[in-house]
Amino acid sequence: MKPSAVQPILLIILGALWLLKSTAMLPETSTLLALLLAAAGVVLALLDGVTKSTVVSSPLLIYAGAAIYLYDHYFVRFSHVAAVGMMLLGILLLLARSDRIPERRQPRRRNDTPYSK
């Protein structure tokens, strides 16, 4: 049995991050966090589709990334960011109450062919 590839891959990733940090090519931690949160929101929306939970969580993750970036780089006050976030959450929660938005993603149907038996 082959040994796991997790340790070598982890060493490569950590070495690359260390190199980028030591050469000042790695963005600040707050910028990375903002990008990761926004990317997580986009990926969640793409993977799970439109459901009652993703209608709320995906835009909020994207907003959290944008809020962290604005707070850190443009010195927007936290109270402003929080107030807009509360309004956005309220709007999204009202939107999620719609009957047009499904509870869960519909399972994919298997392609029933005569050869699949």
Secondary-structure-derived class: mainly alpha
Radius of gyration: 21 Å
Strand content range: under 5%
Largest sheet: none
Number of strands: 0
Describe this protein with a few key phrases.
117 residues; mainly alpha; 4 helices; 0% strand; flat; membrane
Descriptive report:
The chain crosses the membrane at residues 29-47, 77-96. Keywords: Membrane, Transmembrane, Transmembrane helix. The protein has 117 residues and is mostly helical. It has a domain at 27-103. Helix content is 67%, strand content 0%. The chain contains four helices and no strands. The longest helix has 22 residues, at 52-73. The model has no long low-confidence stretch (mean pLDDT 90).
What's the gist of this structure?
With 117 residues, this protein is an all-alpha fold.
Topology:
Blueprint: H1 6-22, H2 29-48, H3 52-73, H4 78-96
